[in-house]
Structures are given as C-alpha cells and as structure tokens.
C-alpha cells in the first residue's frame, strides 16, 4: 500500500511539472546543461527543455516557423533586437561576453608552427582546411569573417580576407573557397570535424575551445572582439547578413561581443524564474567555471518581476 501511494505521489509530481522551453546559442550548450540540472534540483516542479542552434537560427524558429519558446539566449544580443523586438519580446538582458580564438588539435597541419603572429599565413597554406559557422544563422559565423577582415588590417596583409574566404560583401553558399573552407550551421557543429582531422583550424569562442580542451591561438585584443577598449578599432570592418525579410540585409559592424537573454511574450511563469537563476550567483559561477565571462550586474532593459 505504501509503495502504491509513493508511486501515485511520484506520478502526480511528474504530471504537475511545468515545462520551460529554452532556445539558446550552441556556445551555451555546456553551461546551460549544467544550469538546467542545478535549476531543476532547486525547483523540481519545473522541467527545462533546451534546444541549441545558431542564435539567428533560434530566432528564425520563432519568427519564421512559429515555434514556441519561453526563453531565448543569444550569443549576440543584437539578434534579439533585430529579429525579436518588438513583436516577440520587449526585453533584452545583457549577461555574458566572450572572445574569438583559432582552435586546433595536435594533429592539425603545422600545429607545431602556428602562433598569434603567423596564423594568417598558416591558414593560407595549401592543403590547410578551415571551418567557421554560417554567418546568416550564427553570430560566430559573422564574427569569424569580421576577425579575418580585422586581421588584414592588423597584420598589414593586403587581400587576406579575399584569399582566405572570398565572400565579398555577403555570404551565399560557401562556393567561393570550397576547397579550403568548411561551413556548418553553428560553431559547435564543427567540433567533430576538427577532432577527426577533417578540418585543421576552427574560428570559435574561447569558452567552447576551453570546454572541449582544444588547443587555441589567443588573438590580439584588436582582433578577438572581446575588449571594450578596442570598440572603435572593431568598427573598421563590416559584413552583410540576411535581414528580417527575404532579399533584405543587416550590416554587422565589428563590436565587442555581448550575449543577451530574453523572456518571450506569453512565456510561462517559470521562464522568469529560470532567467533569474541564469543571472544569479549559481548561474554566474557555472558560466565562469566553463570559461564564459559574465556581465555583473547584468544590464536589464526591463525589470523581471
């Protein structure tokens, strides 16, 4: 009888759980997995369902496909501004930062030679394969392009961007340099290709490189998009990505990278609780443990009540 009552209580608990659907950037997969577990342990009446994709792809799921989500966390807060405000949300909370690096493995071609000064030459060498994510779907993709353009200026290497990527003003389908460049929807999709040797080098966030114990080149602050001090330097370069409507474009200028998180309109009550947990000391400690720099206090554009 006691066992039956216990089973009934467990069943009722499971039935009563409220789901919180969270769309988030691929680069947040590891810390958000740990945040999910910690949140559900503290609040067992909630079930967090996460879906990772490129930040722009996450937004497109909401705007173009009509998918329901309660919370979205983007690797670029401007994705929320550009694609979700005002129709899908009225808030945007700036909560984390990152840096761009060039990741590789001991088996990458010229791994014993590459450093923070010669990496542009290494990447241009014959037979070297390079990966980056799709700039129309993922902020890491257009940041990879911006870093390449900045490198041309910083290292004084005329035409480096065109030699390596050759996309012109905007990215189409990657055929511009198909023998050298591999593109996938989000940066974390390329990790397996790097680890298997299908590509030699990968433009990626420092936090992701650290989480996966990859070797990486620390880029100068003038290139890594991680320093407010060099905001004006970053503005020298820009790249066009697809806009809200087909045939339209958004110009992305180089800026220090800032992550944003938003509670969507008509979200369940637990969405605010989860977002507050991400911003709490629990969430911040998990983020920092995984190599993700945080903004504290977070810059709230609305008050979460």
Automatic annotation (TrEMBL):
Source superkingdom: Bacteria
What InterPro entries does its record include?
ABC_trnspt_W-bd_WtpA, ModA/WtpA
Output the Pfam families linked to this UniProt entry.
SBP_bac_11 (PF13531)
Q: Which PANTHER family match?
A: MOLYBDATE-BINDING PERIPLASMIC PROTEIN, MOLYBDATE_TUNGSTATE-BINDING PROTEIN WTPA
Q: Which family does it belong to?
A: Belongs to the bacterial solute-binding protein 1 family. WtpA subfamily.
Protein name according to UniProt: Tungstate ABC transporter substrate-binding protein WtpA
Native source organism of the sequence: Caminibacter mediatlanticus TB-2
